Amino acid sequence: MTHSKEFFRRKTLEMILADAESEQYKLKKSLTAVDLVALGLGAIIGTGIFVLAGVAAAEKSGPSIVLSFILAGLACAFAAISYAELASMFPIAGSTYNYAYIAMGEFIAWIIGWDLILEYVLALPAIALGWSSYFTNLLSSLGVNIPGWATHSSLQGSGGLINIPAIGILIIIAILNYIGAKETATINNIGVAFKVFVVLFFIFVGISHVRPVNWQPFMPYGWKGVFKGAAIVFFAYMGFDAVSTAAEETKNPAKDMPIGILGSLGISTLLYIAVSAILTGVVSYGELKDTAPVAKALGLIGLNWAQGLVSLGAIIAITTVLLVMFYGATRIIFAISRDGLLPPTFSKVHPKFRTPAFSIYLIMIVTTLAAGFLPIDIIAELVNMGTMFALIITSAAVIVLRYKQPELPRNFKAPGVPLTPILAIFFILLLMLSLSWQTWVRFIVWFVIGLFIYFGYGRYHSILAKLKEYQ
Fold it and tell me: Which stretches are transmembrane (predicted)?
C-alpha cells in the first residue's frame, strides 16, 4: 500500500458496529436520555462558572462576560448539532475520533484522537485543582485547616509540597468509574440535581442585590475583551461533547443522543447567562478575580450564611465534572486501543464490571501526578485549544459524510448543512485565534509527540493495516 492510501484508510459503519457488539470489547448498555442530559450537565456546570467566570470577568470581559458566554455557547451550539447527527448515526465509544475515522481516514482519526487525549486528560488535573481550592476553603470555614504543604505543590504556590486533596478526589473518581457506567451515572444524577439547585439558589438570592451601576462600563475591554473572555469561558462548555463518548453504553442512542447533547447544552447556557449577569451586577467586576468568585460575591454583599452552601455546591459541581471527564477520557483511549493505534492492554474490559480497567489505571496515574505537582494556569488554555480543534473536526466530518456517504441512515439530521457546521468552524476559529501564542506552541509540541507515536507504532499495529483490502 502507498503511504497516501495508508493515511486515508477508513473504517466502515459495519466495522464499528461489529466492534461494539464483540464480546471481547462489549460495554454494558444501561444509560437513558435522562442519564445523558444529566451526564452533560455533570460535565458542563462546574469549573467554568464556579472558578473561571470571575477571572474572565475581572481580566478579559468585565460585565460583558454575559456576551462572552453567549458567544462561546453559540459556537458550541452549532457544533453540538453536528455532534448530535454523528452520535445518533454511530453508537460507539470514542466520539470525534471514530467520526473522523469513518469520514476522513486513519491519519486524521489519530490526530483527533491524540487531541482528545490532550483535552480530557489535561482537563482532569486542572479541574481537580479547582476542587481542591473549594474543598480546603470549606474546611477552613468550619475550623479545619489542612497544612499548606499538603494543599499545593511548590509550582502551585510558595511553601507547598504536594496537593493531597486533588490527588485524593481523582483516586475516588477512578474507583467510581471502575465499578461501572450506571453506578457513575447514578451518582452523577444526584450531584447534578444538587448543583443545579445551588445555581438557582444563587440566582434567586443574588437578583435582589443587583446594582445596575456595577454593569457600567459594560464593555471595559471592548469587543476584543469579549472574544478573549469567550476563549477562556469556553472551558465551561467543554463537557457537552463528553455525552457522545457514552453512545456505546446507551440503550437507545439513535433517539437519546441528540436529546442528551442538545438538552444539556441548552440548559447550561441559560444558567450561565443568568449567573454571569447577576455575578457582575452584585459586585464590581474588578473584585471577582478569585478562585471562588460566586462565594466571594456573596461574602462581599454580607451574605456569609450563603457562602457555605455555595462552596458545597461548587465542590459537588466540580466532582460531577471530574466524574464525566474521567469517564470520557477512558472511553477515548479504549476506542483508540481497540483499533490498534495504542497498545491492546488499554482496550481490555473487566470481566465483571465491563469497564476498560487498564485505561482507568493509566488515567488515574497520569492525572494524580499532574494534579499533585503541576500548576493550573497553563493547563486551562491548552485544554480549550484541544476542545476547539475537536469541534472543528466534528463539524467538518458532517459535511464530508453528507457528500461522500449520503446513503448512511441518519436518525437525527442536522439542519442547514453545510451552513451550520461552517458557522461552527468559523466561530470556533475566532475563539482559537484569541488564545495566546504560547498555547499554540504547546499545542503544536503535543501533536509532534503524537506523530512520533503514530509513525513509530500506530500505523503498523492498526487493525485496518492487517486487513487484506488495506494491504
Answer: 36-58, 64-86, 107-131, 161-180, 192-210, 230-247, 259-285, 305-328, 358-376, 382-403, 415-437, 443-460
| Number of Cβ atoms within 10 Å of the Cβ of 172 | 13
Q: Where are the domains of the chain?
A: 3-470
Element spanning 227, H or E: helix 222-233
Give percent helix, percent strand, percent coil of the chain, each to the nearest 5. 75, 0, 20
Q: Report residue 103 as a C-alpha cell.
A: 469520514
**CB under 8 Å to 396, separation ≥6 — which residues?**
103, 104, 421, 425
The mean-pLDDT minimum among 41-50, 356-365, 412-421 falls in: 41-50
Which helix (H) or strand (E) segment holds residue 167: the answer is helix 164-179
Cell reading at 93 = 465509544
Instruction: Report the DSSP beta bridge partners of residue 152.
Output: 162
Cα–Cα distance between 113 and 115 in angstroms, integer? Answer: 5
Element (H, E) at 351: none
Closest CA to 41 of 52, 53, 33: 33
Whether residue 34 contacts residue 134, with contact meaning beta carbons closer than 8 Å, is answered with no
CA–CA distance, 386 with 212 (Å, rounded to integer):
37
Maximum separation of any 2 CA atoms in the chain, in Å:
72
Share of the chain above pLDDT 90, in %: 24
380: CB partners within 8 A, 6+ apart: 52, 126, 232, 235
- Model confidence pLDDT, tens digit, residues 77-113: 888 888 888 877 777 766 678 778 888 889 988 998 8
CA–CA distance, 109 with 15 (Å, rounded to integer): 15
Give the phi and the psi of residue 91 in degrees, each rounded to 5: -75, 70
Give the CATH fold of the 3-470 domain.
Answer: Amino acid/polyamine transporter I (1.20.1740)
Confirm if 43 and 239 have CB atoms less than 8 A apart.
Answer: yes
Q: Of the candidates 234, 183, 273, which has an alpha carbon nearest to the alpha carbon of residue 428? A: 234
DSSP assignments along 425-463, one per residue: HHHHHHHHTTS-HHHHHHHHHHHHHHHHHIIIIIHHH-T
Cell (9 digits) for 54? 470571575
Phi, psi of 116 (to 5 degrees): -65, -35
3-state secondary structure of 114: helix
Alpha-carbon gap, residue 240 to 171, rounded angstroms? 23
Cell digits of residue 237: 462548555
Contact between residue 36 and residue 257 where contact means Cβ atoms under 8 Å apart: yes
> 10 Å Cβ neighbour count for 99?
30
Span 52-79, pLDDT tens digits = 788 789 888 999 999 999 998 888 888 8
Give the type of residue at 380: A
